[in-house]
């Protein structure tokens, strides 16, 4: 009999260990991940007037509005970086993070019907959101690079892109995704019990944007506020992302390290809570 | 010994009744603090609820499944039957890993596909073909497997030329056929199927059962939950009967169906009181049965004329009200629907007597009640009550059939030898 038990391929148990995450199983669903990304992408522009142009339009218009209001009207400096590049780099990085956060935070509530009918590793859904967000981010990044090239060549700006940019960029993108995913998974796990957290996410991300150096450089902050903005884990990531292109701004290495540690902590706790909740959430949702 | 593909060991599942928490974080904290410092929970809905809770921990908990043990071997076609709320769906949800058990373990060999719904995850904006890939991968198929079966899936669905059209333009029947076509082509060793056969037209249902029978012949294992005894008979060689969360029978199909019908027998009653319904124009209050002597009785003799009494209350006045009773066998075959004459009704209590003089075979019947006015159906419920047509004290009884249905041949022809 004992011999028989050893040959079972899978055992369903009442409670899963916090740390029990079946990576191999997640990998076996990579095709599903791909089809979900494809679904998000193809359905995004079906039956829309402008289609994929929306990917460009939203950051472009936001950049112009920010430039007019915060730079021209409110006279907020941009550390000598062309305001257009300053705002656009901040906006596309911020958009990716906010997109990851809001999309993954509704994982359980939005997919309750699906999750109630069929099993697959639930983490596939937030992963697919991160990936399709990443595709959109790359499209916007290409647009940004176009403007960047224009400023380099035509405006003859004194900014030097270095080879290091190529190394920095994936690192900061990974941090953005991990932070967004981690926070999103935490919130989505909690929304299975507490629906009011949804409202917190929508206006929380808005507030968080003002607590990040999107519309202002760190250098203009009065020192008594500076500590709060730096404590925000997204701050060094945004600054670093911007700096990868334009060697300006102040980024301190210990600030970056604290952000990386915080990001990893948030990501891991999100992953663990999500993993714990996914087993029984269907009974409470 | 056969290869085991599934072993359910001491599985129990507990649900908590009512609201699990208050639903908002701040109130949960409030309740938590109140409990800690020992004052009455400001959010408890009933005064003194806490005292009740102290009486026993299990006060508001219910066991949907209680110590279930099942072993299923490779290639078996097992039907799971039971009344609503007997735990069938919970069992399927645990085996398909949608929810975790409270106690016990399930051991699995091979891949399991759970078909609790047809076309899970279909997206209206995607084409038929895109949805085949999406649905197939949600059900656990790899892309190569879908590639290999794509043409067969399209053929089976009969959608053909519309396969590149977004499925929001499909009729509901087409969507169901497409979803089912994917399902029957799953490459999993074990299929869990919950009532999905109840959809689609007759031809499609027949083809689906044939297809599943063939899958089983290929060595696939099928676990099939249904209320449709005919489908169970056609597909399954073994049934498990669940009642109130426990297995009450596990064995041959016909005997299992009898065991299932016997659970229902406990409900044989001459008069059924119906609960009040508020958000409607009216609702039935009582369903009763009279035998030919005008006595209340739910056990009717073969060929006896009998009557169904429906009493209902109108909450609001309504014109052109029609009361209807549908008569079904307990295995789900519809026999006849009786309608009242349309009448304008004020608020108040009403009664209709439907005389039933159909020649029925020995069978168990159950009923559906409908109340309508013009196109508006303001009340419908089926599976209410039970009447047994029995052969007791009938001297000549040659025409018994387990299938139920009409007894058409009341006239007995003489058999003559061929010249």
Biggest interface between chains: A-B, 43 and 47 residues
Taken as a percent bin, the fraction of beta residues of chain B is 25-35%
What best-fitting shape of chain B do the alpha-carbon axes yield? Answer: globular
Report Rg of chain B: 26 Å
Strand content of chain A: under 5%
The share of residues in helices of chain A is: over 70%
Find the count of extended strands of chain B (DSSP E, 2+ residues).
19
Helix and strand pattern of chain B: EHHEEHEEHHHEHEHEEHEEEEEEEEEE
How does the helix and strand content of chain B classify structurally?
A: alpha/beta
Main sheet overview of chain B: 6 strands, mixed
pLDDT < 50 runs, ≥5 residues of chain B? 44-58
**Quaternary assembly:** heterodimer
Morphology of chain A? globular
**How many beta-strand elements of chain A?**
1
Q: N-to-C terminal Cα separation of chain B, in Å?
A: 57 Å
Overall description:
The complex is a heterodimer of chains A (285) and B (419). Chain A has 285 residues and is mostly helical. Chain A is built from 14 helices and 1 strand. In chain A, α3 packs across α8. The longest helix of chain A has 30 residues, at 124-153. Chain A is globular, with a radius of gyration of 21 Å. By secondary structure, chain B is α/β, with parallel strands linked by helices. In chain B, strands 5-6-7-3-8-9 form a 6-stranded mixed β-sheet, sandwiched between helices. In chain B, strands 12, 14, 15, 16, 18 and 19 form a 6-stranded mixed β-sheet that branches. Chain B has a 4-stranded antiparallel β-sheet with strand order 10-11-13-17, with no helix packed on it. In chain B, α4 (128-138) crosses α5 and α5 (143-157) packs across α6 (172-184). Chain B is globular, with a radius of gyration of 26 Å.
